[in-house]
């Protein structure tokens, strides 16, 4: 996700004449989650869609909310901005979709008309951006209202698994856009990814599409490093090792890396990335930084490097869908754990202790298969 937090928050506006209720997951003042009864959402604008959820997933941003790191979001909002579902109802202005379509819900709502959407930055959409699970009730419920559905929903091909496709809501677009493209990964180049969480792994999968000659994954967790090797990393390095920096640089004959992707979001890892970048290279910051980070210009000013940071715009989702449909992108590896929706509290506990459970993406299932 991103560190872009709106200044005002309200839960979703739902018609009071709805007689049907649904189960929805909210966060409480105590920082816990709870499943409650809520009225089913209804069409509020001609650009809306109502989606019956099949699978939702938990994002690191949801944990930030639970910890109180996003004070603009008030307790009681339905969490979640990722998921796959079936279109149940459509506003009159929605184009290209039909009731019954299986769809991926974009993490960024895109109106398509404002100055930011016109510039390819839906993350800053003046009537959208990150609204689900933030300003509006989100995807961790049996039904969700999706504004600006024409550009914010993507039809899912019959060949693709619904649960695995939740990674197309946020993790894979973030890994590609904020990681691989921002780091300017090129054929034959060298890439290091610092952080083997869900987005770091997504960046690994996306980087392989650009055929670099060397991809190295860095993390503290041995099980995640093993998974990175299974997903195609040429080498892995545990950053707790005293000689981690020397080992990493030796893989490039001391030259450093053409593309450095920071996918953790703490000062130490960003500093580490500055030490690994090659002359003429690029650092892409993907992690969400909540504290001050040092930029060592005294060491970098003459090395012709670039540092790029951005929010996920999810404009790459149609391209990623095509790659998945063609078999060039395997979606199955990132969702490691899934729970029936009534066990959502256990799912959150598992994701909070991801290293203990060997978890990457954790899904909530509204169907049983």
UniProtKB/TrEMBL annotation:
InterPro entries: ADH-like_C, ADH-like_N, ADH_Zn_CS, ER, GroES-like_sf, NAD(P)-bd_dom_sf. This is Zinc-binding oxidoreductase. Keywords: Metal-binding, Oxidoreductase, Zinc. One of its GO terms (molecular function) is oxidoreductase activity. Belongs to the zinc-containing alcohol dehydrogenase family. SUPFAM superfamilies: GroES-like, NAD(P)-binding Rossmann-fold domains. It holds the Pfam family ADH_N. Its cofactor is Zn(2+). Residues 31-364 form the Enoyl reductase (ER) domain.
